[in-house]
Fold these 2 entries.
Entry 1:
Amino acid sequence: MVTVQQPEPDEQTTGEVSVPGIGLAYVIGRWVIAPLARLFYWPRIEGRGNVPRKGPVILASNHLSFIDSFAIPMASPRPVRFLAKASYFDGKGIKGWFSREFFYAVGAFPVERGAGQAALDALDQQKRMLEAGWATALYPEGTRSIDGRLYKGRTGVAFLALQTGAPVVPVGLIGTNEIMPVGAKFPRLRPRVTVRFGEPLDLSHHGPASSGRARRLATDEIMAAIHALSGQELANAYNEAPAQNPVERIRQVLPHERR
């Protein structure tokens, strides 16, 4: 595990990290792809009014399937961005072009995966998105649950929330693993998916982002809210598979989190 001294708030930790705006692909995705998906899968959406219509917000969700990152933007009342591994965007030829445009269309932006500087760059990218007033989606578990249980949350999401002051809206996804289980290459036509948005959480009372205890307590509050929405069995352990969410790699460069 790589350990890096946590920087002071005013210290420049990364190079220039761009924050892309909304392009034509995203407009098509939101107004064409999303309505078609809702027509085919007829999702049950609850608590849309809990998502603030303006300002930075983190949508923190359980993670059951590859399509979770499409289900959340589809159900959200406002545009949602998330980070995806850069390899989805750098392919060649028609296949590479299609992959790149598709991920842009659903609100994804590329980031390099890894620990050390790559993890700090991912964190800085997410922070800039929030500072720009965007809604972003993250998975505290770090990677998809293979057995359907809800695993303990990593503290990266709490770190971002405490550092930026952005509220966290917990999200409970139900049934996405029935449409596209782990390992499946294509989605299936299955029973309805449920997307539940909980009430926004203000985590500032736990303390500063520099405190490991504050991050751990804030994360536990987030996970308790997600559990109340999803109704999953608790695993009471970390999902130790390699993190699919690049921002959750920051656990390798932050001071040791309290368990």
Note: The first strand starts at residue 44 and ends at 46.
Entry 2:
Amino acid sequence: MKSLINRAIEEFLRATYGEDLVQSVADEEAVAVGRLAPLGAGFGTGALERAAFRLSKPLPEMFEDLGGWMTRIEPVRRLLRFSGRDFKDFLLRLEELPGRAHLVLPDLEVPRLQVEAEDQSVWLVMLEPDPVWQHLLVGLIRGMADDYGALCLISVEGLSIRIDIWDEQFFEGRIFSLQGAQLSGAVSS
């Protein structure tokens, strides 16, 4: 499990910030442990901390960006899109996220969540506080708002994440089909 998470962090850094940053973070890890380590061996939350320091970026923002990046990975996006027909429905079903994640990655410990809704606001309360997960979830929610085409304001308030939905159809969201990716304009031979 740890190697899968480390690999995801490495790929996030590579896709978002480029190979030079990935290599410099790997080199710093090699110096820290006093030996050459294979690429990916030192990638974990420590790699995000080193990358955040190099980029002069707050670590919570790096976790949010990682969560947003994860929504662009098609299997993750599909798993999340199965959670609701529209953005608000998706939010209201986030309590199911730990169970869904457990089906795919049994060793992944996702904190239990409680969802509370009032009018156009949804509160996501972490029943097992974890600042890393809190910021990852903010990024996931931000990415899924874009995926659904929703306009919202997301804020962290203590142990809660507040989502104020202003317009669920602000722009056209990404196409989603239960049948998977569909080819458009395919050339037949």
Note: The two ends are 43 Å apart (CA to CA).
